[in-house]
Amino acid sequence: MNRRELFGKLLGAGAAAFTVGAIQASSDGSYNGPPGGSRGSQLVAVMSGPFSTASSPLGLLNLTQIPQFVAYLRIQVHPGQHGKIVLASSSIYNHWNQFDDAAFAELWPNYDGSTDNGRSDSWIMQDVNWQNTINLADIYVYPEIWGETPLVTAYQLV
Amino acid sequence: MSPSGLGPVQVLGAPVPLLSRSWMVTKLTIRPRLGQWSKILVGGPDLLPDESNAIAVLYPVPNGGEADAFTVQDPSGKNSIDISQIYVYATVPGDTPLVDSFYYRTV
């Protein structure tokens, strides 16, 4: 079984907490997966499912600790959860007292489906040329309520 | 593609540029901040508070739901949008529309 087949198997099994380091690619270890700006021919989901920041004492975490470049990224509030989701760059560390003052996007919770016909708020970023240019390590996620888990989907062309 | 580090922009009483110095980005999105009551006007340097010259008027989202948004993105994937030339105005002084901008950088 090659790496891609293994990957598909993991996703097929609903591996929500998949470790992005599983497709380590750069020889110097400075990034995971294809290099930034590359463009492959097959779209592969490299992140999916609920994303937990609970391992961080602050409840604030970037999507990957090692840079990983993707062509498409979608972050959605988890239906049924109650807190806002703050998305920010690393400048969030300049706002220790109020993380949402650094947000470039705030996603509104969808705890009972009563607004927007039940549609969940979401944030989407896509490279217009379908190149792997969006650096997951640059995107920080902070759930207002500790332990809540926005849904993150990231696609890479490999 | 990385975030520019912009976030909420405070608008006190007149249209303000998103940034005082020139900064080129490839994608820009402006949204009313959830829970605030301002209508947000987006325009160029000639934007006026009465909506004259506005290129977008965004409705507030005080009680939840997906925010109204103005988005522009370079179709060829270049940093071609100078955000110092984009002005915003909030109808409630002190409100802080959210600015989401990404740019290409070499890593």
Your description of this structure?
- The complex is a heterodimer of chains A (158) and B (107).
- Helix content of chain A is 6%, strand content 26%.
- Chain A has 158 residues and is mostly beta strands.
- Chain A has one domain (3-157).
- Chain A has a 4-stranded antiparallel sheet with strand order 1-10-4-7.
- Chain B has a 4-stranded antiparallel sheet, with no helix packed on it. Chain B has a 4-stranded antiparallel sheet with strand order 2-9-5-6, with no helix packed on it.
- Chain B has one domain: Jelly Rolls.
- Chain B starts with a strand and ends with a strand.
- Classes of the chains: A mainly beta (158), B mainly beta (107).
- At the A-B interface, strand 6, strand 7 and strand 8 of A face strand 1, strand 4 and strand 10 of B.
Describe the secondary-structure layout.
The complex is a heterodimer of chains A (158) and B (107).
Chain A: H1 3-12, E1 43-47, E2 61-62, E3 69-70, E4 72-76, E5 85-88, E6 103-107, E7 122-126, E8 134-135, E9 140-143, E10 151-157
Antiparallel strand pairs in A: 1-10, 2-9, 3-8, 4-7, 4-10, 5-6, 5-9
Chain B: E1 2-3, E2 16-17, E3 24-25, E4 27-31, E5 40-43, E6 54-58, E7 70-73, E8 81-82, E9 87-90, E10 98-103
Antiparallel strand pairs in B: 1-10, 2-9, 3-8, 4-7, 4-10, 5-6, 5-9
Class based on secondary structure composition and strand pairing of chain A: mainly beta
Q: Greatest contact pair?
A: A-B, 34 and 32 residues
Q: Mean of residue pLDDT of chain B?
A: 92
> Would you report the number of β strands of chain A?
10
- Portion of residues in beta strands of chain B equals 25-35%
Can you name the CATH architecture of chain B? Sandwich
Amount of beta strand of chain A? 25-35%
Largest sheet composition of chain A = 4 strands, antiparallel
Mean pLDDT of chain A: 83
What's the helical proportion of residues of chain A?
under 10%
Kindly report the spatial arrangement of strands forming the biggest sheet of chain A: 1-10-4-7
Please mark out the parts of chain B with pLDDT under 50 across 5 or more consecutive residues, or reply none. none
CATH topology of chain B: Jelly Rolls
Shape of chain A: globular
Order of helices and strands of chain A: HEEEEEEEEEE
Strand order of the largest sheet of chain B: 1-10-4-7
Tally of structural domains of chain A:
1
Q: What does the overall shape of chain B look like?
A: globular
CATH C-level label of chain B: Mainly Beta
- The number of helical runs of chain A is 1
Tell me the count of domains of chain B.
Answer: 1
